[in-house]
Amino acid sequence: MTKTVAVLGAGMVGVSCALELQRRGWDVALLDKSAPGHETSYGNAGVLARSSLMPMNNPGLWASLPRLVRNTSAQLRYDPAFLLRNGRWMARFLYSARQTCFEETTAALDSLIRLSADLHRQWLPEAGAQAHLRTNGWFFLYRSAQAFERSQLTRDTLDKFGVATQVLQPVDIQALEPSLKPIFAKALWIKDAASVDNPGAVVTAYAELFVSRGGRILRGQVTKLARLNEDWQLSIGQEQALRAKNVVVALGPWSREFLRDSLGLSVPMAYERGYHRHFNAQGSAKLERPVYDTGGGYVLTPMEMGLRMSTGVELADLNAPKSDAQLELAEKAAREAFPLADSRDAEPWLGSRPTLPDSRPVIGASKSDRSLWFAFGHQHIGLSTGPGTAMLLADMMADKKSSIDAAPFAPSRWGL
């Protein structure tokens, strides 16, 4: 069979690719060392947001750099040794904050997010996961009027792409989220957004839908990828082997090392690591939707597991030890904003978001082999972009014109 494909990686992106390719008639095997949705895709803030089109490296980054380089904020922490080892990535990341690249990135991400939202609306009920969905948007919270004014670029960009928002005064914030403490001068309600109360469970539900339609999931570490005549030969652990005509690499933060070790490819990727911890609320306090405290540098989301506090960005090696610094700053700020009780977790969760210098994923075929496909580098918005990635990739694999422009995501822009 010529339409055989092995999808490597069972996070949101990989599972989405497996599900969409299966729908198009491909014989799909999905491979991962962990169960679907149990790695990076498990730990995000659960937001499905049009507002995620704003990359961290936008033109407003330059004004924030003097504060960020001090390495004391909750929004960004970094390991200086990691940045020295990845200086070229950092230079490209900063260079991509220029206006022209920002405009290309926001347009590309907006198209991918909108495509994904349509598929989520289709897949959630098909997978029996509709109950996880909320459609009441989320808040960007500002602790001062000056902080709100500094967000003009964000508001202008959301307006440009027709994202539905509403500016809230303190009385409005209290009416919609009465458990928030009255420390915020203004908020921006991103109405054009949804969220889920267990992102890992959503990925698992999509994977179960894939299996129910005849898909195969193989558990184990892919230890070798090599050409065997017209097929790809994959070794899985010590005992399993698989052959397929096509391979999709959707391994998220592990894609860099896998492609380097298997095929000698150099991927300009860094890791926006992030932590989360779950908390109980005091008394009858509750949240109806996720909130992003822009001054505190965390997102607080109501989840099945409690209130999930997700931190900002930590730039460090993929396997670097955990650090408590960012979590402690975020928790201090969160307690100023909401009546948190005790933590429900013995240990904080840590995940790595794979980030390319222009904050866009690579989606498409290798320039050297049209049977090797890439779908990784979604930084912290894989939940919002995974299904759209799958549709775009499936179109390309079928030589079909897609409804969105694939050029901004081309692997060839990074020599892949």
From TrEMBL:
Its EC number is 1.-.-.-. Keywords: Oxidoreductase. Residues 5-396 form the FAD dependent oxidoreductase domain. It holds the Pfam family DAO. InterPro entries: FAD-dep_OxRdtase, FAD/NAD-bd_sf. PROSITE patterns: PROKAR_LIPOPROTEIN. GO terms for molecular function: oxidoreductase activity. Gene3D superfamilies: D-Amino Acid Oxidase, subunit A, domain 2 (3.30.9.10), FAD/NAD(P)-binding domain (3.50.50.60). PANTHER family: GLYCINE OXIDASE (PTHR13847:SF289), SARCOSINE DEHYDROGENASE-RELATED (PTHR13847). This is FAD-dependent oxidoreductase. It comes from Variovorax ureilyticus.
